[in-house]
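Hey, resending since the last one bounced:
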Amino acid sequence: VKQIKAVGKFDAPSNRVLIDDMQLSSDGASAHGNGRIDFARDADGKLARVGADLAIDKIAVNMPGIFLQPFKLSTASLRASYDATLDQITVEHLNIAGGPFTLTAAGKVTRAGDASPAIDATATIAPLGVRELLVYWPRAVASGAWEWANTNMKAGRVGPLTAQVHIPVGAIDAPIMPEQAVNVTMPLTDVTMSYFHKLTPMTNVAGVITLTGDTFSADVKSGRIGSLILSGGKVVIPELHADNNIAEIDAHGVGPLPDILTLIDMDPLHYATRFHINPKTTTGTAGLDIAFKVPTRNDASDDDIKIGIKSSMKNLAVSITDKLRITQGDVDLTIDNDHLTAVGNVMLLGSRMALNWTEGFKAGKDGLSSHILVRGPLTDAAREALGFHSGDYLKGPVNISAVLDGAHGQLRKAQMTMDLSTAAVGVDYLGIGKPVGTPGTALVSATFIGDTVIQAETMRITGGGIDATGGASFNKDGDLTSVFFPTVHAGPTNDFSFIYTRMANGGTDISVRGRTLDGTKIGRKGANDVTTPNQPGAPQEEDNTPFHISAKVDHLALRNNVTISPFTLDITGYGDRPQTLALDGTLGKSGKLSGSIVAGDGGRKIVLTTDDTGLLLQGLFGFTSMKGGNLNVAAVLPGRADVGHRPAAGGADFSGTATITDFHVVNQPFLTRLFSAGSLTGLANLMGNRGIEFDKATIPFASRNGIINIRDARAAGGATGMTADGYYDRPNNKLALKGSLVPIFGINSILGAIPVLGNLLVSKKGEGVFGMTYTAQGAADEPNISVNPLSILTPGIFRRIFEGRVPESAQSSQLPQAQTQTQPASPPAAPTKSKDDD
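The structure tokens again:
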């Protein structure tokens, strides 16, 4: 204080001091005023009461450490008194006004010896701007709250401010002011408030600020953060007595998801970036809950701030990687200082999936930061997009439970359990697999490089009679290069290992080794094809993919417990067209089986031989009526397989001649019915006993789309002979044959050897002088048989008159007559091919 000057007079009779002029001059303040002071004494002459009524003007305050900036007040008035008996000061009226600031107050201060006094008071400050309030708010009063308000409240109005003070005796001396000792409320209107530095501030905030004995709080009723609509929020600074206060900030809002993600991607948060999300590629709406704990000290760093963010996102659409996009998502997002977690249900690549994704902001010791749990159906397209290129052996939707781990938005490894009940599993060419509807499970582990590019894969497949353990490898682009299964068990007749390799030219190489293999479908393209079959009549694109199969097994299991032991097969081709073949094995105990395809200028020549035809037919087709027989099949496939050759109009898929010698037929229902229909009861009875012996059967054939055309087929033995012409429709299992039965063939055919006369009597090679004509047509398992008994009395030259007619299929009518030489027939037009025709 530089100077205090007072000019006045004392009136003794009234015990009153009149101040005409009063001046204060100091480093921090200056003022001018006037007024009066009244004194009252008791009966003993002691001072009992002092009263004051002062009016002050020209007030100027300049206290840099206490107030934000200098300010002036126009007037201040005080009417107060001191009661010596009660040791109490009573402020009946205090009014301060100047510029935007107006204060009115009243109250009492009661002293209590050496303890701090008790204070009971009320005060009101008229509404004023936020920044104006800070000018008149002493920094020493609730300093933590003052610092936060000065840093974060940039605009708007507050007030009217009301204060109620009930400070008990000694409370001011205590380190902590009781909460109920002070209650200051201050409404907020159109306030701009920062809640976290560098983020978009709250605007248009409406609410209430409350200051109690040791706590500052601001309740936000409404406001905005950019385009987000705030419907609630709160700022709390507890423990105002402490040197290091923590401001607890909460806010709730709703708005467009891109705006929310943009907000939480701002410096220093970068949450969308850490989660590898571009806010500009997202759509949807979201609710946002913010919870921050911010130190109020000036030297606090970003790492000192504790962060909690929750967002409930609806109809979310977001690109996770260049290949993966989530749509129709209902996801709850949770963020803290260490992790970001998304939990909910989304559409991922066309499938509804349950998602639990945790992204660590710092990678662990294993270098991984992403941990993703996914449950739901996974389609073929989804597996491809995720890098699981399983279309060669798995087709159809599967329910998965997967754990995916990665770093910085890129997958590194995955563990997946697949429920295969709704999918087909199989290895084409080998003919093993599990159909749709059969239970099955696959356990898959994979490692990745780059963006969803798979590097290696291990798997175990069980169910549907399959138990296989193996893996797969991929090139740098994530394309499948090989599938290897050291152990495959599939039913009672599959126990082997195999390697499936994708050749450099795009072809397939399969190597099979092991103890036993089911041979009923091996080597047939499409035998267990897990891809969706073409609809009947739909155009099919020709497959020119090269393939190579090498199989060496101890036992190849065929039908009816027939085995080829050992068995060796090596076959190459394109699509479903074989190019070369080398086959060798032992049929039964000692039968020999060999086969080959050799490509040449005239086509691909097929040769198949065995010395036990009956056993081979039993194993391949379940045909048990033939016993023994030496088989030689010589046929030709037209053209070359490697250029995708198909027969021209009028040609055959293949043609040739099958020759069987020294065999007999037993228990053959078709022949039994045929002989019985011709009243050849002796031959019919013979069929059920030791059978009928045949010396030789020659069957020329030509095939197109599964329709096998037969012309001039002959079979001859000592007991009987027969001829046949017609066709067998394999896809529809239909039979249409006509020909002649020749009883006592050995004697009956002697006259046929007489020159000129023999040709007239026999009429057709393979028939005798006497014989009967027949037709057989309908279902191959039970054809309708018709025999003309009158034809047995007719010499061969007239027998054609009695021969029946059989209907021709559209395919068989286009085929040329089957040739006895192994030359290709001229080409026909082909109907749609069935996969069973391979």
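Confidence is low (pLDDT under 50) at residues 525-539, 797-804, 815-838.

Sorry for the duplicate.
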